[in-house]
Automatic annotation (TrEMBL):
<dbReference type="GO" id="GO:0004974">
    <property type="term" value="F:leukotriene receptor activity"/>
</dbReference>
<keyword id="KW-0297">G-protein coupled receptor</keyword>
<dbReference type="Pfam" id="PF00001">
    <property type="entry name" value="7tm_1"/>
</dbReference>
<feature type="region of interest" description="Disordered">
    <location>
        <begin position="336"/>
        <end position="360"/>
    </location>
</feature>
<keyword id="KW-0597">Phosphoprotein</keyword>
<feature type="transmembrane region" description="Helical">
    <location>
        <begin position="35"/>
        <end position="59"/>
    </location>
</feature>
<dbReference type="InterPro" id="IPR000276">
    <property type="entry name" value="GPCR_Rhodpsn"/>
</dbReference>
<dbReference type="GO" id="GO:0004875">
    <property type="term" value="F:complement receptor activity"/>
</dbReference>
<keyword id="KW-0807">Transducer</keyword>
<dbReference type="InterPro" id="IPR017452">
    <property type="entry name" value="GPCR_Rhodpsn_7TM"/>
</dbReference>
<dbReference type="GO" id="GO:0007200">
    <property type="term" value="P:phospholipase C-activating G protein-coupled receptor signaling pathway"/>
</dbReference>
<feature type="transmembrane region" description="Helical">
    <location>
        <begin position="71"/>
        <end position="94"/>
    </location>
</feature>
<feature type="transmembrane region" description="Helical">
    <location>
        <begin position="114"/>
        <end position="136"/>
    </location>
</feature>
<dbReference type="InterPro" id="IPR000826">
    <property type="entry name" value="Formyl_rcpt-rel"/>
</dbReference>
<keyword id="KW-1133">Transmembrane helix</keyword>
<dbReference type="InterPro" id="IPR000248">
    <property type="entry name" value="ATII_rcpt"/>
</dbReference>
<feature type="transmembrane region" description="Helical">
    <location>
        <begin position="236"/>
        <end position="256"/>
    </location>
</feature>
Amino acid sequence: MSQSYSPSLLTTPTYINVTNPEDDSVVSNDVTTTLGALILGLVFLLGVPGNLFIVWSILARTRQRSVTTLLILNLACADGILMALTIFFIVYLAKQSWVFGDAMCKGVFYLCNSNMYASIFLITLMSVHRMVAVVFPRKAKSLVTKQIVRRAIIGTWVLVMLISIPSLVFRDLRVDLDEKRMKRLVCAPNHTEARHVRFQYTLETVAGFILPYSVIITCYVLILRRLRQTKFQRKVRSENLILAIVVTFGLFWLPYHIINMLQVAAEWCKNGSKAKENLDEISKNSRAVTSCLAFISSCANPVLYTFAGKSYIKQSGFAFMARLFEGTSLDQTGTKKIRGQSKDLAESSSTGTPPLRNGK
C-alpha cells in the first residue's frame, strides 16, 4: 500500500487545502475509511498469525527444505512484516489522523512499498525456478543450487530496499483542513510537480507488476509447452500451489495498479479539463479501498497453503504445514519423470520409433 510523496525538511507539518485532488487526504471519505479499516482489521487477524505459523512450520518443523520452501519462507516473512504494519493504518483510518509522527510516516510506507516489491519478486523467482526444473531438467541441479538461490534472495532484498527509496522520499506529514475546516495530521503525497506523480506511480506499476508478471506468464507458457511435449499429465503439488499464489497476487493487486495508471493518465491531461477532473475523482475515491485489497494478498497465502495441505491435517495435526513444505522437495520426483520422458522423446525422434510406455 504505497503512494508517491515528496520530502519535507520542515520541523512542523505544513498546511494544505482540499482544492487540489493530490492534496486530498486518503482518510477524507467516511465510507471508504470505514470499509478500509474493516478490511485491514480482518487482514491483520488472519495475516499475522497465519504467516507466523508458516515461518514456524518451516524453521522448526520442516526437515527437508527445498528451493521452493526457502522462497516461501522469505515470502511469508515479507507478508508477515506487511501484515504487522496494518495496525498503523487501522489506527490512521479510525482516527482519521496520523498520530505516529513524521519519521514513522515515511518509514511505515517505505516498508510497505519494500514488501510489495519483495512479494512479487519472490513469486517471480518461484516461477523461474519451476520453469528451469521442468524445461531444463538435466541442467536444473547445476543451474538452481541452494547457494545460487540464497544469493538471488539476498540480491532481491537489496534490490527492493533500493527501488523503494522514492516512497521514502516522496512522503510527508502535513496538516489537512477538511470540509469543516477542522485540522488533522495526514501522512499523504505532496508532489510539487506532475512529473513526480508520473515517475512514482509508473515505477510502482511497471517494476512491481507489469515486468514481473510478464516474466511469470512467460515461465508458465514454457512450462505448459514442455508438459505437453512430454505428455506429462501428473499434477505436481508445488506447480499448482505456486500458480495459485501467482493468480491470487494478481487479482488483489491489479485494482491498485489500475488506479496508479489512472492517476498517471490524469497528470497528462490538461489542467481544468473534464477528463482530468474525472480521473482525479476516481483515483481519490478508490485509492484507500484498492490499497486495502492489495493487503489481502499477503494474508491469502496461508489460506492457500492450508487448502493445499489439508490432506495432512488429520495425520499430522499442527505439523501439516511442515509436511506440505517437505512435499515440495518431492518435486524432483516429477522432474526426474520429465527428464526420463524427455530422454524417451529424444530417442524416439532419432530412431523414428515411439517412446516406450510402462515397459511396452
